[in-house]
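== Polypeptide entry ==
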Amino acid sequence: MINNHAAYRALTSRDPRFDGIFFVGVASTGVYCRPICPVKTPLQKNCRFFESAFA
């Protein structure tokens, strides 16, 4: 698993190379998504990163 800082960078840039590598859960909204999701970028402090969609 990549570290949280690198995962957040991939999330903010919607880098397609990371699609399927990790998933992000947003604590403040309950949203769970892939890093290429076109929603508004959440604050880093609210993000939790997972290796699998089976959280």
